[in-house]
Amino acid sequence: MPAPPSLLEKSPDAIRAELTGFPGAAVGAALRFREDGGAASLGALVLAMLAFYRPKTHTGALDTLPPETRFREELGIDSLTLTEMVFKLDELLGVPIELREVAHVQTLGELQEFLRGKLEG
To answer: In the predicted model, what is the mean pLDDT of the chain?
Structure first.
């Protein structure tokens, strides 16, 4: 899956500026996804965003989480926080995402599948 045109139009500096305050892993993953459009880079971006948005009381490595990991029950991410994260991805990637489209997303795998579907058009 290629990176969306709107992301390709952004310079690396613009992406860095857009992700000011986010961990370096999020910036690096966004830049990698811009370059390779790969599913692994998109997955790394999602995990880095989750690391930023999850409650500070939920620690631990995210890169070993199975796709069935539930946002609320296992990561402490409520629907408002998930919506905020998804809208940040919408802004970053330039792919329109409607609130009703993500209302059903409850697991890490569902979010990754949803984003791949949006990016593939």
So the answer is: 92
